[in-house]
Design brief:
This protein has about 110 residues and is α+β, with helices and mostly antiparallel strands. It has a domain of about 60 residues: Nucleoid-associated protein YbaB-like domain (Ybab, Chain: A, 2-Layer Sandwich). It has a three-stranded antiparallel β-sheet. The radius of gyration is 19 Å and the shape is rod-shaped.
């Protein structure tokens, strides 16, 4: 009985260590989203924190279009972050990755 509890605690520590490794890797990963044929580039890290926003000067002529392009570039980058997060989690956690949530990984 106590052996099973010790095994479960070890597994929990292993999962926690893997989650920390995933978070660290995501923090170092840079993902770029774009819109308007590259007129707006948004760079996020794997934790969805914005690192950079680059805007082509030609895009400044139309404020409303620019707003849409920034939003679209951010959505593009965010989708790529989600995809990369799933890939990294699958690589590190294997079958356990599916247990952490189908739509993403809370806290990552």
């Amino acid at each position: 009985m106590f052996g099973d509890m010790g095994k479960a605690l070890k597994q929990a520590r292993d999962v926690q260590g893997k989650m920390q490794k995933i978070q660290e890797e995501l923090g170092r990963t840079e993902i770029q989203g774009s819109a308007g044929g590259g007129q707006v580039l948004i760079t996020l890290n794997g934790k969805s924190e914005m690192l950079r926003c680059k805007i082509d000067p030609q895009a400044l002529a139309d404020a409303e279009l620019l707003e849409d392009l920034v939003a679209a570039a951010h959505r593009d980058a965010q989708q790529k972050v989600q995809d990369i997060t799933k890939q990294i989690a699958q690589r590190e956690m294997g079958p356990l990755a599916g247990l952490l949530g189908g739509g993403g990984f809370p806290g990552l």
